[in-house]
Amino acid sequence: MLLALVLGAAPVDHLAADEGAVIRIGILAYRGKTLALTRWSATAKYLSAHIGRPFEIVPVDLDEMADAINTGKLQFTLTNPGNYVSLEARFGASRIATMQTREQGQTRVRYGAVIITRSANSSIQSLQDLKGKSFMAVSPVAFGGFQMAWRELIENGIDPFSDLSDLQFAGFPQDKIIHAVQTGAVDAATVRAETLMRMVEAGTVDLNAFRILNPQHGKGSTLPLSTRLYPEWPFATLRNTPRELATRVAQALLSMPADHPAAQASRTAGWTVPLDYSPVHRLMKTLKIGPYQILRQTSLSAVIKRYAGWIGGITLLLLSLIILNGYISRTNHRLKHAQSVLRNEISERKRSQEALARYRDTLEDEVTKRTEDLEETNRSLEKSRMALRELVKITSAPDLSHEEKLARLLDTGREYFSLPVAVLASIKAGGRQICRVSGDTGLVKNRAGPLSNACVTRLIEHKGEPLDIPDLEQVKNDTCGCRQQGWRNYLGAAVIVDGRIHCTLEFAGTHARESTYSTWDHELLKVMAQWIADEVELQIAHEARQRHQAEFARVSRMNTIGEMAASLAHELNQPLTGAINYCNGCLRMLRDGKNDSETLAIGMQNAVEGATLAADIIRRIREFVQKGDSRQCAVDLNQAVCNVATLVKHEASRHQVKLRLDLDKNLPLVDGDLIQLEQVVLNFIRNGIDAMDAVISGHRILTVTTLHTKGGAVMVSTKDNGEGITDEAMPRIFDAFYTTKADGMGIGLSISRSIIEAHQGNIRARSLSNGGTELLFELPIRPANLS
Predict the structure, then answer these.
(1) What's the rounded Cα separation, in Å, for the pair 457 and 480?
(2) Higher-confidence position of 668 and 584
(3) Most buried among 35, 569, 661, 778, using CB within 10 Å?
(4) Which helix (H) or strand (E) holds 288?
(5) How far is CA 190 from the centre of its chain?
(6) What is the largest CA-CA distance in the chain?
(7) What is the pLDDT of residues 360-383, one digit of tens each?
(8) Coil, strand, or helix at residue 671?
């Protein structure tokens, strides 16, 4: 919603007409322009491929970025949160996506900083102990390298510019700041939390050699922190960027997979919807920097300097009033002598007072009326505020499905406008089709909607602006027959998706209204239409991702079957050869005149069994590699294990691996796709077979276990007695394209994780104490009412 509202105000730019113009992205090159180009060029290529327009990375520093924006040379920016807030205030920059990074296997969108000192320095135990000590940071304008820590110091009574004995700014890289603390060159310092942990993981420094000051616990991060968490770098559009281009760029960024080569090159985990940057505003307001630097000009000298002209004018006015007061005093003395003359005017004054009293009564009535109007306005505003709050709650609810959100949005709008019926209808080439009806569905006969297609044409012609008809009786030339259907008032708006009208949002009632709805009501209707458009766009993107995942899984299954081709050829050759031999034997008996019907029947029966076995193997292979939609049904995981064991038994025999099945006979059913779950079991078994190549023949045992756990789930695990997985490789075995095998592709376990997570389960691996590895997954039991 925020993205659509911000981009909706973007002016038309020459770039909209010139499709060949280069689109420039200004990147804050905080570690040098060469590194910035290396890191972000792949992202520019990704956007060029998805948008169909050439994108170019422009590395700039803070001053160069402001100049480039001011001259219109940039269409987008990627900068730190602090600089973004300044650009937002100066140039109207608007965020459309927030960068994601990966932290110890988890995706995160916020980061913080640490304030460190040597653990051997017993004189510094807290931030308050830094008074009179030396301190090092990156730069006064570095958001993560100084300003985060600056706020914590200020709130703990430490002004770094006056209370420290020495404040040094060392610039980049931040590694040298950590080494300065380690060697005792400075008493304390601040860096981004990731920088410290990267050096610890690389073995450059020992974490125990440092003390973390002002430690933050429960902040939703696995890294040590001394500061609050702030949102990651935003990708922002500028005031001169066309709306359509900004929307397409936002969609492309949000659809970038976390493991895409562009994300890997930029050391990110893709992009997410723009976060709330109000924490950055609060930091800058606290420090009185950026857009809030004006707050520093509140001292008496600053006020006098800033408002010297006003103060001089007020002083002159006061002197004039004093002089005037003296003149009035002297005049009063003279007026006392004129009282006798004024007595004749008393009667006239009384009449004037009576007129004033009448005016006062009239004024009181007017004030009362205005007060009532103001109260009515306040009630309308409060009603709108409550409706907006409910809409935000609906659209941001993570546990509601797409259809549930649409249903609640329609119910909320119908209650707000006090109309009995709400309709959402799609606009297609074949005409108008009702998608959902809320309220009194009996009023919508044959689901034809409150207005006919002829009248809805007027709504489409409004191009996004609401169509408000308080009384259909006042509409001339009612040739469509809407009034005859019983409708008397109508309110509707078009829902625009990807630059075209996707559907209509309509409300109607059977009684006429006195007037049209207010401007606030129309704006709320447009907000609802835009939110529905956002939901539709998200649903379309979600369906595209699901199709991509299904195709990727099918390709993986094809690769797996390709690797097993030799084994399957032998598996098929045995029953087919047997069937041919039995048939040939029966033919020879018939040619020799041996009509032993019992022997012939046994031979033909054996031939049929061999051919049936071969057909079953081919059918299982075809089902495993076929492309199709995910089919959710009740699945017996014991049967799935047996199916896969049959498929791989010859490959296990060829590798001299003994396949042992330990199946729970009372295993409950689960909900899922049988083919996809069989693929996970197959990936587990084949990984176990490969892991035991170095084990002595006769000792290669692979155990497949199913179990109904105490936690109300079904578990499937495989245990091998191979060489096991190293501690360094264990956290990454489920990452896409990561493999420890020379000829491996690194997609089997990654796809397995995607399948299990899509089934609301969890997957993990662990090293066994006696050598080898256990791979396992757990799925929730199928609810009893679905059994």
Answers:
(1) 11
(2) 668
(3) 778
(4) none
(5) 30
(6) 161
(7) 777 777 777 777 767 777 777 777
(8) strand
